[in-house]
Amino acid sequence: MKAELQPVLDALQSAFGAHISEFREQAKAVIAVEHIVEAARTLRDAHGFNMLAGLSAVDYWPERKPRFHAVYEFKNISKNLRLEVRVPLDGDEPKLPTLTEIFPNANWHERELWDMFGFEVVGHPDPRRILMPADWVGHPLRRDYPLGYEEVQFSFNFKEIDQRKPRPQD
Amino acid sequence: MSISQLEITHDELKHLVSERAQTGETLLLNMGPQHPSTHGVLRLLLELDGEIVVNCIPDIGFLHTGIEKNMEAKSYEKAEVMTDRLDYLNTMGNNLAYCLAVEKLVDLDVPERAQAIRVIFAELQRIASHLVWLGTHALDLAAMSMFFYCLNQRERILDIMEMCAGQRMMTTYFRPGGLWRDVPAEFEPAVRAFIDSFPAEIELYEGLLDKNPIFLDRTKGIGIYNGEEGIAWGITGPSLRGSGVAYDLRKEEPYSGYEQYDFEVCTEAEGDVYARYRVRMREFRESLKIVRQALDKLPGGPVRSNNRKFVPPPRAELGESMEAVIHHFKLWTEGFPAPKNSIYMPVESPRGELGVLLEGDGGPKPYRCHWRTPSFVNLQILPKISQGCYVADLVAIIGSIDIVLGDTDR
After folding, report:
1. Range list for CATH 1.10.645.10 in chain B
2. How far apart are CA A123 and CA A65, in angstroms?
3. From the candidates A41, A105, A116, which should be mutated to test the interface with B, based on the most B CB atoms within 10 A?
4. How far apart are alpha carbons B193 and B162 in whole angstroms?
5. Closest Cα of chain B to A111: distance in Å?
6. Phi, psi for residue B56 in degrees, rounded to 5
7. In order of start, what are the domains of chain A with their CATH numbers?
């Protein structure tokens, strides 16, 4: 981990109670969901993290508290620093505040979080699915969403398998 | 046509178009997903006032393959095969990002020779990808012969890949811990022949386009964003360097030994379609420089790590060593475990920052593998920069962002 990152981590720790860890020289800060908007604003305005390089999530099902981590990758281009911020989210229908006011490119990332993980992004300007069709049921990247497969149909059992094929629900 | 009459849209899109669309004053036009100038299956819903774009709503996901979900069900070695299918113009680059991520997660070494060969292929792949971009971009702007010239040269690179990996495009040539196999003896002469003859080709392309009044009219002053906007929108790669920001991960966060090579980060200040074209044209020459340096000092030695807990033993050893048989069996039935933690590995793909968020859970399968793909992020600025331009210019702007829909939709 770069020495220049230490003051940023200290500031996050004192202001937002961030829990800091390090793995393979990459720093991670775990911040509670109620602080994430302010933390992102502080990172951008006070510490020069001017790019939201990435945003995704991890599902720890069947854990409940927290079930999810939203993972933000911030980048400070002028000082060449990277910081990963993780936001733990409880329960099956988590809510996450939007960052679109601070980083406009959070828009599609947050739509993907809704689409793939079912996070309700509070205050999002365009809360639609992005990759899956608009009438899709379920959130595919959740761990309890089955991977799915197709049974091979032969001429002797074509109808039998056809009958039990899963079909999209109305 | 008013918004309610359009079958292709639904009420959810109302907040994205102007009020004039409700009354039918502006026209809603569907562009794609089968439109040749959208470089794949990108669908754009355009709100038009005459020929002027009032609003542009991209609709992606037509090429969604569920690769991230599928990878969770495969072991680390087997999951790599799917990385080729993400950005099908940057297969070696995807392999590289994935292998570096796995190597970082499990702390695996890579021999120097393998690193140098990886760099050579990553740069050849960058040239091949830029060639497809140049051919299709010029084709969109009605310079048809460019397409044939570019694809002809790209074929030479694909031949080199086929020679080494056995596949033209879906290579899976890099493996965690090194390469699949060493390159054959014909590799070096073939690459040298290519890098010796290619500069003349670049001059040919520039001669056809740089002073072509139609090309200049269609690209200069179109689709402008400045460096600050680009950074705020998360844009990376040549699309950001065309706005004057010298940001290249090969320099900023070197991987695979890029710090040993002397090359320039190409930037242009204007931030329009032409500037992005210039950046990519200059990157051809920088990539050639890197390939030449890597070839000149290509070290000898093995191309795979000797760490048998992660890399299978050579086939010849299986007949002699019981240990080798056990390792072979373990690796090909179960795979290797990775620690319960996560890493983020960014590399510079031809389109920008290609990041892999890889999380292990102590078992042999990736618990989560997220791909931060440059096409997905770069495309987001399209509605903003296309407002007020002509429909014909929109085609030039889409081309200049250089998206690959396999990369966007994953």
Report:
1. 67-305+338-372
2. 24
3. A105
4. 16
5. 12
6. -135, 120
7. 5-164 (3.30.460.80)
pLDDT one-digit tens code per residue, B46-77: 888 888 998 888 888 888 988 999 899 889 98
DSSP letter (8 states) at residue B356:
E
Interface test with B, best of A1, A21, A22, A24 (most B CBs within 10 A): A24
pLDDT tens across B179-199, in order? 988 899 999 999 999 999 999
Between helix B144-165 and helix B187-209 the angle, nearest 10°, is: 170
- The nearest CA of chain B is from the CA of A127 a distance in Å of 9
pLDDT digits (tens, 9 = 90+) for A23-65: 888 889 999 998 999 999 998 998 889 999 989 999 988 888 8
* Terminal C-alpha separation, chain B: 34
Checking if the pLDDT of B3 tops 80, the result is no
**Token duo for residue B386:** 């296309």
Q: Identify whether B33 is preceded by a cis peptide bond (ω within 30 of 0).
A: yes
Tokens 């002509």 map to which residue? B390
Instruction: Compute the distance between CA of residue A32 and CA of residue A35 in angstroms, rounded to an integer.
Output: 6
Total beta-carbon pairs less than 8 A apart between chain A and chain B: 94
- Encoded tokens for B258: 């890029």
A142 touches chain B (CB under 8 A): no
Contact assignment for A82 to B344 by CB distance below 8 Å: yes
pTM for this one?
A: 0.89
Cα–Cα distance between B339 and B356 in angstroms, integer?
16
Structure tokens at B238: 């040549």
* B63's tokens: 């090429």
Question: Considering the domain B67-305+338-372 in this protein, what is its CATH number?
Answer: 1.10.645.10
pLDDT (tens digit per residue) in B121-162: 999 999 999 999 999 998 888 888 889 999 999 999 999 999
Q: Is B46 left (phi over 0), alpha (psi -120 to 50) or beta?
A: beta
Among B9, B401, B385, CA closest to A104: B385
The contacts of residue B315 (CB under 8 Å, 6+ apart) are none
Maximum CA extent, chain B: 80
Find which of B45, B55, B225, B233 to mutate to test the A interface (most A CBs within 10 Å of its CB): B233
Q: ipTM above 0.90? A: no
Q: State the DSSP code for B7.
A: T
A48 touches chain B (CB under 8 A): no
Q: With an 8 Å Cβ cutoff, are A126 and B61 in contact?
A: no
Chain A residue at shortest CA distance from B340: A23
3-state secondary structure of A59: strand
B36 Cβ contact partners less than 8 Å away, ≥ 6 residues apart: none
